[in-house]
Amino acid sequence: MAKIMHRHIINITFLALITFCIISGTVLCFGAYMWAGMGRDQQMDFVAENYPIYYNEFLSLQNFAIYPFGIMFKLIGAGGFFAGVLFAAFFSFIIFDMFSLLAGMRKKLSVNNFRRHRAAVKSLVAQLFASLLCLAPPFGLVALLIAEYEKAQEVVQYLLAIFALHSSLNAIVLVLTTPPYRMFFTK
Fold first, then answer.
1. What pLDDT score was predicted for residue 107?
2. pLDDT tens track for 116-134
3. How many structural domains does the chain have?
4. Cα dihedral across residues 41, 144, 159, 153: positive or negative
5. Name one Pfam family in it (predicted).
6. Is 133 exposed, middle or buried (0-12, 13-18, 19+ CB in 10 A)?
């Protein structure tokens, strides 16, 4: 649409900046997460201090990790919140811009072509919002960590089940919002 209207084509420098921010943010988050973990000796001291009745069971475990909720997780959370706000603003701008471009194209396209473009934009927006389901488990996990909920492991299992529904939900949204697929299933 932007090429038809000759406006709002994303600058390659801006696209490279976004790509750099995504990659560097991911690497920084990974590094902070790895740095936030305890060493083996610290883990055993933590278990002995907080869970003395389970100390012997933890000694028999070969591989486990304890991540205390400290400054690193607060920084990861703050960075994630900041990135979420930036990307929400960016995607909101893109969605608004697509609809304004679509409105400007109404008189330049045939009725059928305009309907196809409008259906494609609506389908993309619906799929974007369906993809937000992927964010529910991480946000739920962060909320559980902050609240220090006792039955967090059970809730995390439910969150993982919700996460597993993402592809099915996205397929359903695709079928419901794309006219050719919808027509195929209604016949």
1. 81
2. 888 888 888 888 888 777 7
3. 1
4. positive
5. 7TM_GPCR_Sri
6. middle
